[in-house]
Design brief:
This protein is an alpha+beta fold and about 280 residues long. The chain has 2 domains: about 170 residues, Regulatory protein AraC (Jelly Rolls); about 100 residues, Arc Repressor Mutant, subunit A, CATH 1.10.10.60. The protein contains 10 helices and 10 strands. The strands form 2 sheets. It has a 6-stranded antiparallel β-sheet. Helix 9 crosses helix 10. The radius of gyration is 20 Å and the shape is globular. The chain starts with a strand and ends in a 9-residue tail after the last helix.
Length: about 280
């Protein structure tokens, strides 16, 4: 692992290849901080408080404001991992965050709203800006040392933060979804999180929320980056994985909890999602 230290932030680059799924709990000394993870290869997961696991896949970022709640990180086995992570001093980044304007209902607006109330907040998505990677790599190739080097690194951090905020503040993916439909899509998403164990269909959901199937299908994908049924499937698989790893349950116990009557069907779906048979998660 390579790392860079600065009075306002730290940047690290990690390469690893785990032979089994790894779950890590950072020490409590971390306390209040902002964290940014960028996955170049492999798949990772993060869990905060009692929330569901969040997946961070190849080419994606996950940005968090953690006021001091417990967090857990998980890394997938048999997959060469390459990631960058940045931790930023809270007062420094909060000042930058609050000084920047944000359009209502964008991820940046929601993130800033949570931070202003001292709450945990997280936002993720695809890293669609090549300059994002260039700034990160430039930090590790800083040509100056001493105070001038620190000044240059701080400038690079501000570039990185500006690009991060720009990605979170973009509404391109929501331009075709009007305000009322956005509210419906958020309601559908909340409903799926509360009832993902059930066997929902696109038709059932469209009837329940009073929206036609095509609008539900396209609007949900526009807002959350994946089809509604894929989103539901991912919730089931992430929860099932958590039960297998964290609760020590077996496949036949987990399958009905996440909505599968047949344990073999659950195993097939799980392997399609994670590339490994669920029975191999127990060591």
């Amino acid at each position: 692992m390579d790392a860079i230290g600065h009075k306002y932030f730290g940047v690290g680059e990690t390469y690893a290849n785990f032979t089994r799924d790894i779950t890590l709990t950072p020490p409590p000394i971390r306390n209040h901080h902002y964290g940014l993870a960028i996955m170049h290869t492999c798949q990772a997961g993060a869990k905060f408080m009692n929330e569901d696991w969040v997946s961070v896949n190849k080419g994606e970022f996950y940005f968090t404001h953690n006021p001091g709640v417990e967090e857990v990180h998980r890394f997938k086995a048999n997959c060469a991992m390459h990631m960058h992570f940045v931790e930023i001093q809270p007062d420094y980044l909060t000042e930058l965050l609050m000084s920047c304007s944000a359009e209502k209902d964008t991820p940046l607006w929601q993130f800033r709203d949570h931070v202003s109330r001292g709450e945990f907040s997280g936002a993720g998505g695809a890293v669609s800006v090549p300059a994002f990677y260039q700034v990160i790599q430039g930090m590790f190739n800083c040509p100056l040392a001493g105070p001038l080097g620190q000044m240059m690194l701080e400038g690079s951090l501000q570039q990185l933060v500006a690009l991060q905020f720009a990605m979170m503040g973009s509404q391109k993916q929501n331009e075709s979804v009007n305000r009322r439909d956005r509210e419906v899509m958020h309601a559908v998403k909340d409903y799926l999180h509360a009832t993902f164990q059930q066997g929902h269909s696109l038709l059932d959901l469209s009837r329940k929320f009073g929206v036609n199937q095509n609008k539900l299908k396209t609007g949900f994908r526009e807002m959350f980056g994946k089809p509604v049924i894929t989103y539901l499937y991912d919730l089931k698989m992430e929860h099932g994985r958590s039960l297998l790893l964290d609760k020590g349950m077996n496949v036949s116990e987990v399958a009905p909890i996440v909505g599968y009557r047949n344990a073999n069907h659950f195993s097939t779906a799980f392997k399609r999602k994670f590339g490994i048979n669920p029975s191999r998660l127990k060591y």
